[in-house]
Amino acid sequence: MRTVAVVGTGLIGTSAALALTGRGITVYLSDADPDAARTAASLGAGTTEEPTEPVDLAIIAVPPALVGKVLADCQRHGLARCYTDVASVKSGPRTEVTTLGCDTEHYIGGHPMAGREQSGPLAARADLFEGRPWVLTPTPDTDTETLNAALELVALCGAMPVVMDAAAHDRAVALVSHTPQLLSSLVAARLEHADETAVRLAGQGVRDVTRIAASDPRMWLDILSANAGVVADILEELAADLGTTVAALRAMETGDEAVRRAGSADIEAVIRRGNHGQARIPGKHGAPPTRYETVAVAIGDQPGELSRLFREAARAGVNIEDVAIDHSTGQRVGLVQLQVEPSAVRRLVEALGERGWDVRD
Q1: Crossing angle, helix 11-21 and helix 34-42, to 10 degrees?
Q2: In the chain, domain spans
């Protein structure tokens, strides 16, 4: 692959362009908003000049509802030899592509499972897709050249290809992406008019749950409208669980001991189900989930402290598997939670203690 056209220079399109230009690919950028394309070009994502001949691959990086129309237009003008898209919903675009009479031999649906709560070209990163799944949804019409071009794109972006049926993909992302976005927004919406004192008590738990609630509403409206039925099905199941949970909590308020015990059992059951579901989420590098231990260290909020802590862990021969920082409200101190292998906990605690770090139990 030598040349690529990216049509749509938002977060995903520009991130793919940055990854490709970093690999020496010539990338041609276009967008319905010329300013967005120029911004992406200024970041080093490619050029806004038009290609003089068909490129090897065109990436259609537009909302799901526009994929068919944009693909038809690109094919009509002979933009590329092969085409793919990066829309987060696959069944609807595929139906429209067929309805519009597009060339389906040289088109393959795609969806990189990566993103950020920010949007637009300025939020783009060349490493956005590294180690992330990139779903491809070929059909019996898809020719080998097009599949190979899409696989090369995935490899150049550092992602991992996953081949799926379009409908199965939409059900999967409704569960692991679209529904969590709505739930995060619903929890965050409780904070909109909450008392300031309550909001100031927010810790890492509510930060984790509401992080993606900062996402662009317009972008998510495009996504959800293309997968509304499947997401609604999952929300109905959640609503049933929520109703049971509310009833159990009300039961725990009563004076009847048997009723309270029944309510407690229902709450424990839903939390245990959550334990089991969370344990199924793949661990690092897609491996089976691993149970790490937490070593909590208090650090000052000043430059260099975090890097110094990591260097101390490296000197002790301990690999940091994951990290989270819980910031203290109104104080210039934070609690760094280092996730490490259980066998490394004692070694790390002793090494940090010897170097004067404030290791918390």
Answers
A1: 40
A2: 3-163, 172-279, 293-360
pLDDT, tens only, 256-283:
899 999 999 999 999 999 999 988 887 6
- Domain 3-163 superfamily per CATH: NAD(P)-binding Rossmann-like Domain (3.40.50.720)
Question: Please, are residues 177 and 224 in contact by the beta-carbon 8 Å criterion?
Answer: no
Q: How much is the pLDDT for 84?
A: 98
CATH number for the region 293-360 comes to: 3.30.70.260
Order of strands across the sheet with 333-340? 322-327, 333-340, 293-300, 358-360
Give the pTM.
0.78
CATH number at 172-279: 1.10.3660.10
C-alpha 208/C-alpha 210 separation (Å) is 6
Q: pLDDT by residue (tens digit) across 238-254?
A: 999 999 999 999 999 98
Of 33, 138, 30, 133, the closest CA to residue 84 belongs to 138
